[in-house]
Specification:
The complex is a heterodimer of chains A (482) and B (343). With 482 residues, chain A is α/β, with parallel strands linked by helices. Chain A is built from 19 helices and 13 strands. The longest helix of chain A has 27 residues. Helices cover 58% and strands 2% of the residues of chain B. The radius of gyration of chain B is 24 Å and the shape is globular. The chains are: A alpha/beta (482), B mainly alpha (343). Chains A and B meet through helix 4, helix 11 and helix 19 of A and helix 5, helix 7, helix 8 and helix 9 of B. Bound molecules: zinc ion (ZN). Zinc ion binds next to helix 18 of chain A.
């Protein structure tokens, strides 16, 4: 058994950190004793470091299945520039030539990131068999659960793949999972095999929880302005729509002196990079973002997260507010709620799940439609290939729909509760309800925001400095350290 | 929308289709010829993604706003209002200085490489190896990686700053300052075009145009020089403006081969060879017209055609000289247009 001291030396040597974060060492110890592990750790605990360090220590390849292509690219970059060159992300965006080369040379890479759809490719799987794996990692493992909000049918094949790979030591990672999702992950991935579960509370005591109800859009916008002007920066505002994110960023720019920018999939790659870097370097007070923002962003001092729209479920809400206060300082999460927001979420559910008619049409015309019916089609195709009847598929989707509506109702209940919000969340995630509510815990229904008591109001000095405007000669001297 | 006004004129109504096809690099000999006549060939391929529908919508909007007007069913000309708007636009917006360079380089790839270059040299100047590389294509990363392996032992910061300063000395200080704000480096983060626009009072589009203009000019500058950065640009330089097939035809022509011989060597139809030669006549400086047009034909042409070249018609030639081909007529038009431009 490797000593604590040796682990810390390895951490320092490979990553330059001198201390593990909560949960990391426990997970790594399990894996080094060849015990498969399900780690349910809140965002920001450095989950990826766990498998990276294990790969380093064993000096054998690690395969990571991850559904988030952008996140994968991000992690690949992070590793590359930590001096790690042998990393590849096999995704559908990779060019054919490069993919072909990578697949036939898999053993040359230390870290192999796989998008789930790549697991359907025979040549990929066959090459995986040849590898002597240090570790098999399933990132965002909750995607395997039909009860979870992000169910990915491709993930259902992972248990089978593990068997074919002769049960490599496996790490399943997720940030939030209810008890039911946890059972689903274990059942699907590990069957009856022994598996260690490490669960850290989703609760982040330094994030004050609040819901502000507004009567209409105009009031909501006014509230946003008031909040961003008063609250300590930097902060994040989440939106369900790209257009709204741009619109409100523009409004904040016009009505305040704050530095603000928007971030979403509609902006160019170069703009997204720029906005993210500016935010990291403290040049922006606030970002108006969609859920596309945040993966792999590890900024410690985010003071507030405001939700302009109602999130789809408590899981994603917790993930998103979890970006605040990673430095342990007082932070705040405010959900702005207007009754008609529910309708928006219901429409989003309808858009992602096909109606009975559409299902019937697809099943009747599957040959023609395969590959042309978008995201909904992929899902339908998966079930069709399982040999399910139209009736059965309709049943599955109608259950998915009611699951989603149930999730939506849960977050609605959170916004409307008259009791402690933190207690509500803990109960939802199946944790012990030992919450003792006080003034710094959450805002109960109808109460004012205690910003002053929380010391969340910014002082003059804390206004973020403006961009420095320099002549090009000075910029060049600074750029190249001359 | 107003940006397009500079391509229109008050008296050449048939411009719209030619403008769209030149900007989006749709090359037919006829488009290229009229592009030459309207003096807009410098802008060839500046906007390869321009869609017909989008363009048509813009034109419709300009007509609606009375900036363009229909002329006797022949096409669209600038109105007085349109001309004023055009001049006004030119006054308050960034004006592209070297649009012709756009078709000379693989622009997108170069811009990726340039951003990466500045970033890695900057980080290396501070001895930093932990950073997020700027968003860029694999191709760009590969080419920078190879280059870096060869040159990482040089004083990169010193050398790159010399090239940048030398290049920017010839630009206005304001433009140069904006240009340098678009780069990433060690603890130095770029601004988005939108942010610079807010600070300078220019439009976001102006900043994008400035970036396009100066980044490509810098490519050209490095290409002409002898610095260690030249090898990054050379592979991105397009050999010429001719299409691949036309280049081959022209190579044979320039080596002294006759049209009949080229036709049989290349296995092409005569009309195709003629098109290739017309394309070459438009793009190649010092194209030899005399080998294709006889002295007798020259004297016929010069008697028959005078004044505005736009108004010369092949039909008029056919009435008296039905044996002279359209290709020869068009070649003569091209030669005269080029002479006119030199004057
Ligand atoms: Zn409470």
């Amino acid at each position: 058994m490797i000593s604590d001291k040796k682990l810390e030396t390895a951490l320092k040597q490979y990553f330059g950190f001198s201390k593990f974060r909560s949960g990391q060492k426990e997970v790594i110890r399990n894996l080094l004793s060849r015990e498969s592990t399900l780690a349910i750790l809140p965002t920001g605990t450095g989950k990826s470091l766990c498998y990276q360090l294990v790969g380093k220590i064993y000096k054998k390849p690690v395969v990571i299945v991850s559904p988030l292509i952008s996140l994968m690219q991000d992690q690949v970059e992070q590793l590359r520039f930590a001096g790690e060159k042998k990393v590849i992300a096999l995704t559908s965006v990779l060019s054919f030539k490069r993919k072909e080369y990578a697949v036939s040379h898999l053993s040359q890479f230390d870290f192999i990131y796989l998008a789930p759809e790549m697991l359907n490719k025979k040549e990929v799987v066959e090459n995986l068999f040849q590898l002597d794996l240090a570790l098999f990692v399933v990132d965002e493992a909750h995607c395997i659960s039909k009860w979870g909000p992000d169910f990915r049918p491709d993930y259902l094949g992972l248990g089978e793949l593990r068997r074919e790979l002769n049960f490599p030591t496996t790490l399943a990672l997720t940030a939030t999972a209810t008890k039911r999702v946890e059972e689903d992950i274990i059942g699907n991935l590990f069957g009856t095999q022994k598996v260690k579960v490490i669960r850290h509370s989703v609760d982040r005591p330094n994030i004050f929880l609040a819901v502000e109800k507004v009567a209409n859009q105009k009031e909501k916008n006014k509230k946003v302005i008031k909040l961003v002007e008063r609250l300590k920066a930097p902060g994040l505002i989440y939106f369900s729509s790209k257009k709204k994110a741009d619109e409100i960023a523009q409004m904040i720019r016009q009505k305040t002196k704050l530095n603000v920018s928007s971030y979403h999939a509609g902006r160019s790659a170069i703009d997204r990079y720029t906005v993210q870097q500016q935010f990291m370097l403290g040049k922006l007070d606030v970002i108006c973002a969609t859920s596309a923002f945040g993966m792999g962003v590890n900024k410690k001092n985010i003071r507030y997260v405001i939700h302009y729209h109602l999130p789809a479920d408590l899981e994603s809400y917790l993930q998103e507010i979890g970006r605040a206060g990673r430095d342990g300082q007082q932070s705040i999460a405010i959900l702005l709620y207007q009754e008609s927001d529910v309708g928006l979420q219901r429409r989003l559910i309808d858009m992602t799940l096909p109606e009975d008619e559409m299902i019937q049409y697809y099943m009747d015309n599957a040959q023609k439609l395969t590959g042309h019916a978008g995201e909904q089609g992929e899902l339908l195709d998966y079930y069709r290939k399982q040999g399910l009847s139209s009736e059965r598929v309709k049943e599955i989707f109608s259950r998915r729909r009611s699951d989603k509506i149930k999730n939506l109702n849960e977050i609605l209940a959170y916004t409307n509760t008259h009791h402690c919000r933190r207690a509500y969340i803990k109960k939802y995630f199946g944790e012990k309800d030992n919450q003792i509510h006080d003034r710094s815990c959450c805002q109960l229904s109808g109460e004012e925001l205690p910003l002053k008591e929380l010391k969340m109001i910014k002082t003059e000095k804390e206004n973020i400095k403006n961009f420095d405007d320099n002549s090009y000669q000075r910029v060049i001297r600074k750029l190249f350290n001359l | 929308m107003d940006e397009l006004l500079c391509f229109f004129s008050k008296n050449q109504p048939r411009r719209p289709a030619v403008i769209r096809q030149v900007l989006s690099n749709k090359r037919t000999v006829s488009n290229l010829f009229w592009g030459l006549r309207y003096k807009i060939l410098d802008w060839l391929a500046i906007c390869p993604q321009l869609e017909r529908e989008k363009f048509d919508n813009l034109i419709a909007a300009m007509v609606q706003n009375k900036l363009l007007a229909e002329i006797n069913g022949q096409g669209l000309c600038l109105t007085e209002l349109g001309a004023r708007r055009r001049d006004n636009f030119a006054e308050i917006h960034y004006h592209m200085k070297s649009p012709y360079l756009f078709s000379r380089f693989k622009v997108q790839l170069w811009q990726d490489i340039l951003r990466l270059l500045v970033q890695i040299v900057s980080e290396a100047s501070y001895g930093n190896t932990h950073y997020y590389v700027v968003a860029s294509s694999f191709q760009a990363r590969d080419s920078i990686k190879k280059w870096y392996q060869d040159y990482h032992e040089c004083e990169l910061g010193q050398l790159l700053s010399e090239q940048l300063l030398l290049f920017l000395k010839n630009e206005s200080a304001d433009d140069a300052t904006i240009f340098m704000q678009l780069f990433y480096g060690h603890e130095y983060v770029a601004k988005t075009a939108e942010q610079i626009a807010v600070n300078t009072g220019w439009s976001t589009r102006d900043i994008e145009v400035l970036w396009n203009d100066l980044s490509v000019k810098f490519a050209d500058f490095l290409c002409e020089g002898t610095s260690i950065f030249k090898v990054l640009v050379i592979p991105l330089k397009k050999t010429g403006l001719l299409s691949k097939s036309a280049t081959e035809t022209y190579r044979l022509y320039a080596s002294g081969m006759t049209v009949a011989k080229i036709k049989s060597v290349r296995g092409l139809k005569e009309s195709t060879v003629a098109e290739h030669l017309l394309e070459a006549a438009i793009f190649v400086p010092n194209f030899n017209f005399k080998r294709l047009i006889s002295p007798l034909e020259y004297s016929i042409f010069s008697k028959l055609f005078k004044g505005n070249i736009d108004n010369w018609h092949y039909e008029k030639l056919q009435e008296t000289e039905p044996k002279i081909s359209f290709t020869k007529f068009r070649l003569y038009q091209i030669e005269q247009s080029k002479l006119e431009m030199v004057e």
